[in-house]
Amino acid sequence: MNLETPLYDRYQALLAAEPKTRQRDAADKLGVPEAEIVSVLPHAKRLRLDDIAGLLGRFESLGRVMALSRNAWAVHEKKGRYHKLQLSEKMGLALDPDGIDLRFFFTHWAYAFALESEQGEGKRRRAIEIYDAHGEAIQKVVMQEADHDDAWQALVAGFATEATPLAVPPAADPLTPDAAAEPFDAADYEAAWLALRDVHHFHALTRRFGLSRRDAFARAPAGFTRQVSANAAEILLRAAAKTGLPIMVFVGNRGIVQIHTGPVTKIERMGPWINVLDADFNLHLFDAEVAEAWYVRRPISDGVVTAVELFDGKGGTIATFFGKRHEGQPEDPQWAALAESLPDAGGVADVA
Fold first, then answer.
1. Three-state DSSP class for 125?
2. What range(s) does the Haemin-degrading HemS/ChuX domain occupy (predicted)?
3. Which of 31, 125, 137, 302 has the fewest CB atoms found within 10 Å of its own CB?
4. Which residues pair with 236 in a beta bridge?
5. CB-count burial class (<10 Å; 0-12, 13-18, 19+) for 213
6. Can you tell me the distance from the alpha carbon of 279 to that of 265, in angstroms, rounded to the nearest whole number?
7. How far apart are CA 14 and CA 333, in angstroms?
8. pLDDT in tens, 206-255
9. Strand 303-311's sheet: what is its strand order?
C-alpha cells in the first residue's frame, strides 16, 4: 500500500496522541470511512472479491477464528471454525449453530483486505476484513491459532491484488420503506400476518405492504406485538444467564447477519454498554441508543415464534433475540414466558 498519503499521516498522528484508539473509532475521529484507513496501512493487502466462494472456502484452513460482525450500536464476536458453507451468487450461509453461524448478502460486499501485524512477545495478528461500498465493515475474521502459517500465506497469495488507496462515498442512513400507502388495508394486512407459516417469510410480508419492520410490528394484529422497555436486552440477558436458558442473539448489517445460539453466562455492564463476556461468545450492546424495543409473536407452522427486536432512532435494527429452537418443534415455553414478562415501554425493570 502507498504510505505517502495525508490520511496515513493523520492516522499516525492520531495514534501517537491516542495510542489505544481502535481502527473504527479512528475513522470516526478523522471523518473518513474505515476502509479508507485500512487501504493505506503498510500491513494490509487488498484481496480480490471476484470469487467470494473461493475466498470463504479458504477460511476453514485457518483453523479456529474469531468472527466479528457489527453495526453502529452492537458488536457480535463468535469463536469457532469457519465452515459448513452453503453459497450462491448473491447470498449464502455458514450453518453451524454451535459455532460460527452466518447469513451472507454478497451484493453489499465491495472490498476485502488481509492484515498482518506484530502484537509484541512474538505474537502476530492476522485478520481478513470485509467492507461494503461505503467503507463500513461487514465482518472481520481474526485467526486464533499460530500454527496455520502455510494456510494464511496461501490464502493471501491466491487472492492478493494490486490496489491504490480508497476514496469511497459515505454511507447514507439506513433505508426503510415509506409509510404505508393510504388507505392502508388493515384487515388484509392482519389476515396476511395470521397466515404466516415461516418466520423467514416476514420480509416478504413487509415488502408487500410497504412497511418498515417497526411499522409492521406497530400494525400487527392485537396481542401479537407490543412495545417494551428499552432495557429489554439487559433484562433478557441477565435472566437467561441466571436460569441457564439457551437463547439466540442476532446482530447484522447490510452484508451479514451473525448468530449465537446457546447459553450466556457472564453479563457485565460497562458504562453505556451491556456485555456478554463468555469464552466463545462476546456481545457488546450500546443500549443507550435503543429507541424502541418490540416484543413480537409471529405464527409459524409449529405454532408461534417469539422475538424481541431492538431499533435505533433511525429505525435500523440493532439486535434481535429468540429462544433456541429446532425446526419442526415448538419454541421453549421458558423463553416465551421470559419475553412475555418484559415490562411495557416506559417501564424499567430491576436488572440487578
1. strand
2. 34-159, 211-342
3. 31
4. none
5. buried
6. 10
7. 51
8. 999 999 999 999 999 999 999 999 999 999 999 999 999 999 999 999 99
9. 85-87, 91-94, 101-105, 256-262, 247-252, 317-323, 303-311, 292-300, 225-228
CA-to-CA distance for 136 and 110, rounded, in angstroms?
Answer: 10
Let me know if residue 326 belongs to a domain. yes
Strand 292-300 vs strand 225-228: parallel, antiparallel, or unpaired? antiparallel
Same domain? For 145 and 225 the reply is no
Short-list 108, 84, 66, 136, CA closest to 279:
66
How many structural domains are present in the chain?
A: 2
Specify the pTM: 0.94
The domain of 151 spans 6-82+109-159
Measure the CA–CA gap between 284 and 270, rounded to whole angstroms: 9
Spatial contact of 345 and 292, defined as CB atoms under 8 Å apart: yes
308: closest CA among 215, 235, 219? 235
3-state secondary structure of 340: helix
Enumerate the H helices of the chain as residue ranges.
6-17, 23-30, 34-38, 52-59, 149-159, 186-194, 202-209, 213-218, 232-243, 333-340
Q: Could you tell me if 123 and 215 lie in one domain? A: no
Residue 214 lies in a domain: yes
Cell of 198: 415461516
Angle at 337 between CA 302 and CA 186, to 5 degrees: 60
- CATH of residue 49: 3.40.1570.10
pLDDT given for residue 120 in this prediction:
75
Q: Are residues 124 and 239 in the same domain?
A: no
Burial class (CB in 10 A: 0-12, 13-18, 19+), 254: middle
**Same domain, yes or no, for 239 and 323?**
yes
pLDDT bucket at 37, cuts 50 / 70 / 90: very high
Predicted pLDDT of residue 327 = 80
